[in-house]
Amino acid sequence: MLSVQENMIVTFTPALFDKFAEVVSRYPEGKQKSALLPILHLVQAEYGWLSVDAMDKVADYLALKPIEVYEVASFYTMYFLQPKGKFVLEVCRTGPCCLVGAERIMQHMEKRLGVPEGQVTADGLFSWRGVECLAACGFGPVLQIGPSYTFHENLTEERVDQLIDELKEKAKNQ
Amino acid sequence: MARKLLLTHIDVPGIDTLEVYRRQGGYRAVEKALKTMSPDDVVEEVKKSGLRGRGGAGFPTGMKWSFLAKPDGVPRYLVCNGDESEPGTFKDRFLMTKIPHALIEGMIVSSYALGANTAYIYIRGEMMPQIRIVERAIAEAKSAGFLGKNILGSGYDLEVYVQPGGGAYICGEETALLESLEGKRGNPRIKPPFPAVAGLYGCPTVVNNVESIAATVPIVNDGGEEYAKIGIERSTGTKLISASGNLVRPGVYEIELGLPVEEFIYSDEYCGGIANGKRLKAMVAGGSSVPILPNNLATKTAKGEARLMTYESLADGGFVTGTAMGSGGFIAFDEDQCIVRNTLNFTRFYHHESCGQCSPCREGTGWMEKVLHKIEYGHGDIADIDLLWDIQRKIDGNTICPLGDASAWPVASAIRHFRDEFEWHILNPRESQTRNFGLAHYADPLVPVV
C-alpha cells in the first residue's frame, strides 16, 4: 500500500539524470513511459526506497501523471514504498525451496535478526522477507541480498549467520 | 550419451564471453542466416523443426511467427520472455548465466526472420546478476559487429535491449509482459487482438521464451529437418528440464524429448534417484501450474505404458490421470512431503501473484488459500474438500489469462489424487502438522485411478 506518512525529499544528481537519459534512448520517440520500471530501479538503488517525492520527480521527468508512477510502484513487489534496512535479505518461500528447508531458514532469519518479516533492525542495517519463487529451485534454499542482489544458494543456518556477519563487517568499514 | 544442442559447451571455461563462444562455433548461425538465407527461409526452417514454445504453452514457434502481421511502414518487434517465475523452473536463468551469447545469437537470427529492427529481452528484475551478464554479452556482440547497423554487411540493422521487470509472476504472461514493457502494471490484455497483430506499442510483435529463441541457433545451423529427427512425433528436439525437490542431483538437464520419466528420475546420467534413500511420492512435471501426479502415475500412464518426457505422453490421460510438459519444471516429492501443505504453498503463491483484474482469480485464489490453511492447521471440515473443488472449478477457464487456470489445476489434481491426505488432516486435527498421514496410495502397487 502507498503510505504518505513518510516522505523523503530527493534531488536527482546529474549522473543519475544521465542514466535516465540512456534508458529513455532504448525506446521509440514518445514511448518514454517504457523507461518507468528501469528508472524506478535506478532511483531505488540510489536512495534505498521510493518516496512520494522521488516518484513525483520521476513522473515529472517522464512527463507522466504521478498516479501512473504510483500505480506501477505499488504493483511490483521489488519497489519499496517505505524505508528498508540497508541490506534486504529475501528468502524464497515457494514450494520447491520449502521441500528442502526454506521454512527453517526463514525461522532462523527471524530469530537471528530479532525482527519479524518486513521490519527493520534497530541499527537500520537489515530487513528480511520471504519472496516468491526466485527461479533457482534446484539449488534451494536460496537467498538474495539487496540492494545489489547478490545470490546465495544451498543455504544452511550456518551460512546465513556467516552472511549476516559479513554484511555487518562490510557496513562497519564503509 | 544424449544429444545436446543448447548446453553442449556449457562446461567450457569462459563460454560466457564472445571470444570463447565464437571459438566453439558461436555466431555461425548469424553468418549463415544473414548471408545465405532470406527471412522467410529462416521461418521455414523453424517450422520444419517442429519447435514448440518452451515457456509453457508449447505452441509451435514457426506457426506463431507465421501469424505476424506485416503492414507496410509499421515496425515489428521481437520480445524475449525472460521473466522466468514459474515455481520449479530455473532453466532460463541457468542459460542466461552460463551461455548468454546463445540467447543473443538466437535473438539476432529470430529478429532477422521476423523483420524486427528493435528487440527487447524482458528479464525479471530479481535477476540483476543475469541482467548484467546479458547486457555485457549484448555490448560484446555489438562491438564485434553482430548488432547495430548493417550487420556483417547484410544491410540488416538490429538493436537489442534488456528490460528489467519489477517483480511480478504475471508478467510471464505475454500480454502482461508487453504492458509491463510499456511501463504499466502487468495486467494481461483481452485477446484478440493477439500480439502478432497488435503487441508492443500496438505494433505486430512476437513474444518467445529464452529457450525457444536459443533453440533457433541449432535449427539454423543444422536445418529444421535435422532438429526434427530428435524426439518423438510432435515433441521434437531437446528440452531443458529444471529438476528440483527431493532428488539426489537436482539441476538443469538438457534431454532429448522422449526420454522415459523413470530414467530421468533414477538414472545416474540425470537426477540419480530420490534423495536420502527415500521413495518418490509425487511429481510435478512442468512447473507448479500443471497437475501433480502420484508415484504410480508419474512413471507410467494409466494404461500401464512407460510415461515419456514428451508433450503427448505427459498429457496422456488428460487431467484425470495425466499432467503437462509446461515449462519443464520437474519437482520431485519424497514420502515425507505433505501434499496439503504444498498445495497451500502453491495456492498462496497464486493468490499473491494474481493481478486482481478478474474476480474469479482475485477472490478465488484467496478463498482457496484460506480453506487450505484451515485444513493444514487442523481446523478443517470434511465439506471443505468439496468447497475447494467447487472454487477451483469456478476459476478454471473463467479468467482473461491462464493464471486463473494455473491456480485451479494444482488444487484439483491434489484433491483428485490425494483426497485421503486431505481427509486425514481433517480427521486428525491434532496431528495435522506431523508427517504421519496415510501412505497407502503410493506405497502399494499401482492403485488404479479413475
UniProtKB/TrEMBL annotation, chain A:
Cofactor(s), names only, from the UniProt record: [2Fe-2S] cluster
Database matches in Gene3D superfamilies: Glutaredoxin, NADH-quinone oxidoreductase subunit E
Coiled-coil region(s): none
Tree of life domain: Bacteria
Protein's organism: Sphingobacterium griseoflavum
Record bears the keyword Metal-binding: yes
Keyword match Iron-sulfur: yes
SUPFAM superfamilies reported for this sequence: Thioredoxin-like
Name of the protein described by the UniProt record: NADH dehydrogenase subunit E
PANTHER family the record matches: NADH DEHYDROGENASE [UBIQUINONE] FLAVOPROTEIN 2, MITOCHONDRIAL, NADH DEHYDROGENASE UBIQUINONE FLAVOPROTEIN 2, MITOCHONDRIAL
Family statement: Belongs to the complex I 24 kDa subunit family.
From TrEMBL, chain B:
Keyword 4Fe-4S found: yes
Cofactor(s), names only, from the UniProt record: [4Fe-4S] cluster; FMN
Pfam families in alphabetical order: Complex1_51K (PF01512), NADH_4Fe-4S (PF10589)
Enzyme Commission numbers on file: 7.1.1.-
Keywords noted in UniProt: 4Fe-4S, Flavoprotein, FMN, Iron, Iron-sulfur, Metal-binding, NAD, Quinone, Translocase
SMART domains associated with the record: NADH_4Fe-4S
Ranges of residues in domain NADH-ubiquinone oxidoreductase 51kDa subunit iron-sulphur binding: 340-385
InterPro entries, per the entry: ComplexI_51kDa_subunit, NADH-UbQ_OxRdtase_51kDa_CS, NADH-UbQ_OxRdtase_suF, Nuo51_FMN-bd, Nuo51_FMN-bd_sf, Nuop51_4Fe4S-bd, Nuop51_4Fe4S-bd_sf
Keyword Manganese listed: no
Catalyses which reaction(s): a quinone + NADH + 5 H(+)(in) = a quinol + NAD(+) + 4 H(+)(out)
Transmembrane stretches, start-end: none
Role: NDH-1 shuttles electrons from NADH, via FMN and iron-sulfur (Fe-S) centers, to quinones in the respiratory chain.
Family as reported in the entry's similarity comment: Belongs to the complex I 51 kDa subunit family.
Protein name: NADH-quinone oxidoreductase subunit F
Name of encoding gene: nuoF
